[in-house]
């Protein structure tokens, strides 16, 4: 019964982490994509230094958002795993 409780606590913790990571990653992803898209669509983005800087900063935001969303996916998968272990321990 102790193992079931520990697995349920880990499952809840991983789900909480996944929720927080998804909430943190989505604004980074959206902001980064908008920065890259709006500056790369201009005709002088290869020559203008300020546009190139904005594109590189947007790329950093985009990569950060993707990493946060990947962490949310891993947290969600771990939450499913620990919840399954708790379910099997309780009813299986």
Low-confidence segments, given as residue ranges, are none
Major beta sheet summary:
none
Structure classification:
mainly alpha
Give the helices and strands as they follow along the chain: HH
Strand content: under 5%
End-to-end Cα distance = 12 Å
Instruction: Report the principal-axis shape.
Output: rod-shaped
Number of helices, where a helix is a run of at least 4 consecutive DSSP H or I residues: 2
As a percent range, the share of helical residues equals over 70%
Number of strands: 0
Radius of gyration: 20 Å
Q: Averaging pLDDT over every residue, what do you get?
A: 96
List keywords for this structure.
mainly alpha; 92 residues
Describe the structure.
By secondary structure, the chain is an all-alpha fold. It contains two helices and no strands. The chain has helices at about 1-40, 50-90. It is rod-shaped. It starts with a helix and ends with a helix.
Ordered list of secondary-structure elements with their pairings:
Layout: H1 2-40, H2 49-91
Summarize the structure.
This protein is mostly helical and 92 residues long. It is built from two helices and no strands. The chain is 89% helix and 0% strand.
């Amino acid at each position: 019964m102790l193992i079931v409780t520990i697995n349920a606590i880990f499952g809840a913790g991983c789900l909480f982490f996944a929720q927080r990571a998804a909430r943190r990653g989505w604004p980074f992803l959206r902001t980064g994509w908008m920065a890259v898209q709006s500056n790369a669509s201009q005709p002088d983005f290869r020559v203008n230094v300020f546009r190139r800087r904005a594109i590189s900063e947007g790329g950093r935001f985009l990569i950060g958002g993707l990493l946060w969303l990947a962490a949310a996916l891993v947290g969600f998968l771990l939450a499913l795993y620990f919840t399954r272990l708790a379910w099997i321990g309780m009813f299986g």
